[in-house]
Design brief:
Elements: E1 13-17, H1 21-32, E2 36-40, E3 53-54, H2 58-62, E4 67-69, H3 92-97, E5 104-107, H4 112-120, E6 124-127, H5 132-153, E7 162-166, H6 170-181, E8 185-190, H7 193-201, E9 205-208, H8 209-213, E10 223-226, H9 235-238, E11 246-249, H10 259-264, E12 268-271, H11 281-299
Parallel strand pairs: 1-2, 1-4, 2-3, 4-5, 5-6, 7-8, 7-10, 8-9, 10-11, 11-12
Helix pairs in contact: 1-11, 5-6, 5-11
Length: 303
């Protein structure tokens, strides 16, 4: 159940800058809760606006805003705001120059450069992607997105497919459950003994990373899903996989596979970045909106 701002307090102004469809869904969900919401750098969006205000310039968007919401990710090059719903370039330095010291900013996947730009101007920035409730809620649509991509990329059913998942974090847990539900034969590689015990208890096949990477025997998997955000699978292990294996990387850069080696040797590699934003943007936007509402409630002393 969502929480409507208390009637005793006037609606707070929120400014949402840039972003993709997720950001617009977030804006609409917050506006529906009674917040005054202005957006900027979303001018090519052709859907319903609801009670969201479309700001004509950056200053009018952020002026008087209690909270500025930057997109997920905030930037892809440390120079420009990520804003695919506009034809214009919005520089990060211009965004932070338009703010006043003390204004609060939140964004997704906030890097060191973005944080330094904010801090240099006396602005507090928080990464909502680090919120546990968002990470957990995002795991399910991410797993569904991974399944959808796998189904589109292979010429056989996932039912009966031999799947290997690398890692056992939130996304891997949801993915293991999702793949098992459609009848895949699921092996999960993890490091911690307690994770291996849970994998076994949940009906999947546990495999330690040391067992996976040790030896030189062929590995009989049809699809390998990586969820570990570091390169852990190099040429030695890739060469032990079947030639027609699908390598589906769900991790952010640098990814878990040696992508250059795999592609140069003819392996089928899909780097599925920005899930669930690409496959379930409406759900992802609602999750972000709910997380921001919770952050605002906490700030006001409400659980």
């Amino acid at each position: 159940m969502t929480t409507t701002p208390a009637s005793a307090s006037p609606p707070r102004k929120l400014a949402l800058l840039g972003g993709d469809l997720r950001q617009m869904i977030t804006a609409r969900s917050l506006a529906a809760e009674g917040y005054e919401v202005a957006v900027y750098a979303m001018d090519t969006y052709a859907g319903e606006w609801g009670s969201v205000t479309r700001a004509s310039d950056l200053q009018s968007a952020v002026g008087g805003a209690d909270l500025i919401v930057l997109p997920l990710p905030v930037t892809q090059d440390d120079e420009r705001l990520h804003c695919p719903l506009t034809r214009h370039t919005v520089l990060l330095r211009d965004v932070f120059d338009a703010l006043t010291p003390g204004q609060r900013v939140v964004g997704g996947k906030v890097g060191a450069h973005v944080r330094s730009l904010a801090e240099a101007r006396g602005i507090t920035i928080t990464d909502y992607l680090q919120r546990e409730e968002l990470a957990v809620a995002n795991a399910v649509p991410t797993a569904e997105g991974a399944l959808a991509i796998a189904m589109a990329e292979v010429p056989y059913t996932i039912h009966g497919a031999r799947c290997l998942i690398l890692g056992y974090g939130r996304v891997a847990k949801a993915l293991a459950k999702t793949l098992s539900a459609v009848g895949a034969v699921v092996t999960v590689a993890a490091r911690k003994p307690q994770d291996l015990a849970w994998i076994d208890a949940n009906g999947q096949i546990p495999m330690s990373f040391s067992a996976l990477t040790g030896g030189d025997a062929p590995l009989a998997f049809d699809i390998v899903f990586n969820t570990v955000p570091e390169q852990i699978i190099g040429a030695d292990l890739l060469s032990r996989l079947p030639d027609d294996v699908l390598l589906l990387d769900l991790a952010s850069a640098p990814g878990g596979f040696d992508h250059d080696w795999a592609k140069s040797h003819g392996y089928h590699v899909v780097w599925a970045l920005s899930l669930p934003g690409k496959t379930a943007p409406v759900t992802a936007g609602r999750i972000i909106g709910e997380t921001i509402r919770q952050m605002l409630n906490e700030e006001r002393g409400n659980p």
